[in-house]
């Protein structure tokens, strides 16, 4: 059965065999090749499948067959593609391919028939690839009712209906030849009518048959429609999966593009880096070129220098030749000199021997120097008294007054040994005088330092005693006087920036000791210096180099039963090798004293401070050893009880001070009198200094005097105490008989003039 088909036009379908899996479209490649809505293009799809060879051929290999479909159509949407090709199996097992090429247009083929395989688009020519298409109608006519034995469907269009015999209603035409019967020919007309009736019955039968066929065809079409709808759903899902895949592919493409962009950027960066590097290299190249130019210029300069040097070398060679000549002459002279050197070596040897002798003599001289020095010191007196008057200071100076000019004091002699004291007001008529003149007093000491005397002038006088300490003698230097008279200034000095002139006796003595020790080193003497610093307050000893907080009770003990040497228990002794170290120690002692001062006002002036340097010497040549002690003592301010008006603790302090000062005087007196018993232990101070007072020890006492007129009485008192010490020493030099004679004169006081007369005689 054939149906009228629409002409296919440019569409052509070549079908060999299509496998059921043909619904799987081949993978669509690049996104750019996917149709987009509204795109008009020619598409070619290849649907590949496999076909087995005829079953009669056992070795038949699978053959790949393809359905090629070319079309040119408007693709309105991607979903149209899903319906491009579909395949469904008919109920009879045959395969049917329906290919809608555009909306409402389909190409169908029924596989499995015995006839030639065709696709019968409406009115189009369909044929096997490469063969001329066979008209459908003729094919259908050749195989009527071929598919599944059914009659071919009746053509839908009335134009395709088989021609019907036109009934001659008018009766004018006969059935057989169209010849009109005569009216009278009833029989003939009856025959015609029977023939017409028969024809009409046939037509009726045909119509009934056609109606039946149309019903079948309608059912077939409905079935087909259902299948097509199923195929559409299937294709829709396929289209969705294709869309998802396309989306994945697009995502991949975007990833690839991103990666591409990333690589492009990286490449651009690499390019810019490379360009930068190229620019750097270019710059380096330029620099190197300029350096090369400079080096070339330098090389040119060097070449010219080499040329000039070569010329100079020639000159030097010539000079060298002349020098060689001179050298030869000198060598000749040298040989002569060698002889002379040998002679000189003999002379040097002789001189070395002389030197050794001289060194020995020098050592002997050093020993003699020590002895002589000591003799001189002894001749000068093992006990000496110096008087020092400080200048007026600050508020003490009235306008237009020279601070070194003191109205009530005179320094009359050129030797600097006498001080005259004159009371200008309120002369006490009962006051005893030395000069015999009321209100005027003369005092003579080993040395008197007026207010103009500097620290260095004062130290000159005591430096010999410091030397004695280095030579192995014990030396005590005291500063005695009323409060504010200049004892501490004399002993320690004042700190006024870096003014070295204000340095006191202690730092100067230290300086001299280290200097002399260095000088004596070449004579084989090595010294070890050990320092201690203590104060005695109210007969209690306190360590000024300790930690300042200790409540240790320090006791004075004899080092050995048969020796005079004493030691203080728990006292700090510091070995020093430099002067700087000693200044640090003095600072520490002063800080410790300052702490104590806060506890007891003005304590420093109410205590005795004893700075002691132990000097141990050893001669590495002679193995001779020495041990000398240098004690520098700042005594507490002396005050007369009746003048001070002290009470309570202050009274106790004053009594303690006066007692220890009186004991000092008694000890000195006992030493001068060569008494058997010396009362050292009556006070801490004399007990401590017992091996430094008396014997071969040297004692020097500074009596410091205030220039203030209101201190006249205290000044007089201090000078009298110092004179007593001085007299005792003078007595000690006298033969005992003469001493007894003087004592027998029963004079209350011994005048300076008497002593002077006795002394000079
Ligand atoms: N020769 C001097 N030249 C200049 N100033 C001096 C001299 N002697 C003492 N002074 C000054 O006089 C003041 C009192 O002196 P210093 O403190 O030495 O007296 P002191 O006798 O030690 O008193 P104290 O017993 O209270 O300790 C200080 O300011 C000191 O600098």
UniProtKB/TrEMBL annotation:
SUPFAM superfamilies per record: P-loop containing nucleoside triphosphate hydrolases (SSF52540)
A GO CC term assigned to this protein in UniProt: microtubule
Coiled coil: 190-305, 348-382
One Gene Ontology biological process: microtubule-based movement
UniProt-listed InterPro entries: Kinesin-like_fam, Kinesin_motor_dom, Kinesin_motor_dom_sf, P-loop_NTPase
Amino acid composition bias (Low complexity), ranges on this chain: 77-95, 156-172
Region named Disordered: 77-121, 138-181
Domain of life: Eukaryota
Keyword annotations from UniProtKB, A to Z: ATP-binding, Coiled coil, Cytoplasm, Cytoskeleton, Microtubule, Motor protein, Nucleotide-binding
Main subcellular localisation: cytoplasm
Residues annotated as domain Kinesin motor: 382-728
Family, similarity comment: Belongs to the TRAFAC class myosin-kinesin ATPase superfamily. Kinesin family.
Entry protein name: Kinesin motor domain-containing protein
Source organism per UniProt: Ridgeia piscesae
Source organism phylogeny: Eukaryota, Metazoa, Spiralia, Lophotrochozoa, Annelida
């Amino acid at each position: 059965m054939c149906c009228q088909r629409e002409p296919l036009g440019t569409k052509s379908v070549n079908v060999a065999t299509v496998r059921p899996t043909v619904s799987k479209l081949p993978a669509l490649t690049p996104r750019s090749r996917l149709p987009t809505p509204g795109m008009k293009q020619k598409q070619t799809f290849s649907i590949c499948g496999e076909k087995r060879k005829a079953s009669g051929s056992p070795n038949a290999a699978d053959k790949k067959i393809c359905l090629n479909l070319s079309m040119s159509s408007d693709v309105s949407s991607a979903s149209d593609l899903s319906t491009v090709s579909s395949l469904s199996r008919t109920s009879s097992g045959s395969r049917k391919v329906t290919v809608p090429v555009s909306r409402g247009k389909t190409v169908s083929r029924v596989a499995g028939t015995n006839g030639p395989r065709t696709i019968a688009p409406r009115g189009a020519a369909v044929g096997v690839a490469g063969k001329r298409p066979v008209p459908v109608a003729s094919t259908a006519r050749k195989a009527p009712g071929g598919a599944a034995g059914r009659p071919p469907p009746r053509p839908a269009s009335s134009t395709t209906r088989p021609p019907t015999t036109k009934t001659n209603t008018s009766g004018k035409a006969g059935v057989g030849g169209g010849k009109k019967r005569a009216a009278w020919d009833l029989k003939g007309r009856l025959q015609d009518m029977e023939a017409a009736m028969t024809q009409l019955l046939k037509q009726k039968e045909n119509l009934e048959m056609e109606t039946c066929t149309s019903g079948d065809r309608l059912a077939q079409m409905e079935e087909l429609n259902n299948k097509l709808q199923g195929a559409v759903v299937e294709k829709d899902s396929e289209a969705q999966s294709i869309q998802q895949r396309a989306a994945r592919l697009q995502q991949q493409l975007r990833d690839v593009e991103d990666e591409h962009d990333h690589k492009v950027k990286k490449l651009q960066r690499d390019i810019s880096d490379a360009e930068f590097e190229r620019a750097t290299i270019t710059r380096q190249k330029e620099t190197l070129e300029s350096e090369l130019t400079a080096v070339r210029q330098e090389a040119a300069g060097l070449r010219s220098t080499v040329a000039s040097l070569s010329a100079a070398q020639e000159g030097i060679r010539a000079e060298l030749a002349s020098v060689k000549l001179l050298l030869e002459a000198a060598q000749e002279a040298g040989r002569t000199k060698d002889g002379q050197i040998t002679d000189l070596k003999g002379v040097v040897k002789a001189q070395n021997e002389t030197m050794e002798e001289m060194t020995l003599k020098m050592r002997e001289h050093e020993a003699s120097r020590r002895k002589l020095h000591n003799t001189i010191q002894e001749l000068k007196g093992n006990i000496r008294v110096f008087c020092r008057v400080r200048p007026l200071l600050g508020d003490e100076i009235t306008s237009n007054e020279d601070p070194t000019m003191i109205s009530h004091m005179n320094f009359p002699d050129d030797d600097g040994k006498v001080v005259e004291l004159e009371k200008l007001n309120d002369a006490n008529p009962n006051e005893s005088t030395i000069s015999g003149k009321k209100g005027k007093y003369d005092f003579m000491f080993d040395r008197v330092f007026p207010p103009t005397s500097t620290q260095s002038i004062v130290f000159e006088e005591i430096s010999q005693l410091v030397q004695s300490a280095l030579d192995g003698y014990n030396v005590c230097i005291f500063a005695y006087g009323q409060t504010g008279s200049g004892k501490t200034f004399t002993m320690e000095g004042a700190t006024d920036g870096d003014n070295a002139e204000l340095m006191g006796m202690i730092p100067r003595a230290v300086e001299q000791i280290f200097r002399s020790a260095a000088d004596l080193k070449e004579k084989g003497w090595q010294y070890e210096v050990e320092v201690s610093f203590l104060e005695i307050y109210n007969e209690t000893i306190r360590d000024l180099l300790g930690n300042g907080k200790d409540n240790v009770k320090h006791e004075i003990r004899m080092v050995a039963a048969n020796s005079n040497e004493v030691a203080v228990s728990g006292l700090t002794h510091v070995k020093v090798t430099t002067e700087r170290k000693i200044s640090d120690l003095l600072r520490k002692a002063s800080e410790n004293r300052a702490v104590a001062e806060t506890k007891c006002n003005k304590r420093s002036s109410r205590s005795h401070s004893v700075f002691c340097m132990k000097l141990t010497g050893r001669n590495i040549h002679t193995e001779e050893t020495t041990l000398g002690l240098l004690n520098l003592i700042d005594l507490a301010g002396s005050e007369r009880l009746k003048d001070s008006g002290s009470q309570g603790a202050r009274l106790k302090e004053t009594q303690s001070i006066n007692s220890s000062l009186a004991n000092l005087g008694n000890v000195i007196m006992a030493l001068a009198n060569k008494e058997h018993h010396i009362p050292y232990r009556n006070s801490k101070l004399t007990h401590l200094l017992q091996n430094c007072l008396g014997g071969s020890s040297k004692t020097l006492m500074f009596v410091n005097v205030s220039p203030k007129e209101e201190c006249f009485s205290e000044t007089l008192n201090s000078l009298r105490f110092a004179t007593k010490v001085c007299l005792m020493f003078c007595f000690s030099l006298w033969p005992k008989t003469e001493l007894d004679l003087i004592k027998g004169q029963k004079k209350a006081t011994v005048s300076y003039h008497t002593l002077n007369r006795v002394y000079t005689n």
